[in-house]
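Try this one yourself first.
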């Protein structure tokens, strides 16, 4: 019996890398902020080091600035983890001849992003491989009206052989040609 529906779950911001980055930013930012504040107040707010010897201008104010920035970015990342931004699924249904792409966005009236494309509007699938210092792999859904929709988020990195097998399986399922591009 052939599969009539393929559904791919997409992990959002709730991944180990995001959680570790958030923790490091908040902890390091707090340390910098407290060190800068200690230099201004001339009292030691950090128990493991003596920050009274730091001159407030320019070192202390720079530490306050960088600490505030790191804490702000850390809070933003923490909220993306709580809201699980980018999570969702890709669904390919032969029963309805439709591709559904669903993602969770920022809270509000349009929090859930829902895209639907008929099989007849799909021109091809394209497998992209970017090599170098920041390697990327993705499968792009190319539509007849020249739109290109990436099926996976940028941080989603699979081994080239796994994503190639996935692209071949989807191209056969959708009965469309598979193209490849190496950047």
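Now uncover the answer:
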């Amino acid at each position: 019996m052939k599969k009539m529906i393929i559904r791919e779950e997409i992990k959002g911001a709730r991944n180990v890398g995001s959680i570790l980055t958030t923790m490091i930013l908040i902890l390091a930012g707090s340390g910098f902020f407290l060190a800068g504040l200690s230099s201004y107040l001339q009292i030691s707010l950090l128990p493991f080091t003596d920050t009274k010897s730091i001159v407030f201008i320019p070192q202390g104010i720079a530490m306050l600035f960088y600490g505030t920035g790191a804490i702000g970015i850390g809070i933003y990342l923490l909220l993306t983890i709580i809201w699980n931004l980018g999570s969702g699924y890709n669904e390919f249904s032969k029963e309805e001849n439709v591709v559904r792409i669903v993602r969770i966005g920022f809270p509000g009236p349009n929090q859930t992003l829902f895209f639907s494309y008929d099989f007849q509007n799909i021109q091809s699938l394209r497998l992209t491989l970017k090599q170098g210092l920041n390697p990327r792999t993705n499968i792009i859904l190319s539509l007849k009206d020249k739109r290109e929709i990436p099926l996976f988020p940028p941080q989603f990195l699979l081994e080239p052989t796994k994503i190639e097998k996935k692209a071949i399986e989807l191209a056969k399922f959708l009965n469309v040609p598979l193209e490849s591009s190496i950047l």
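Discussion: Residues 33 and 65 are 7 Å apart (CA to CA). Residues 56-83 form the longest helix (28 residues).
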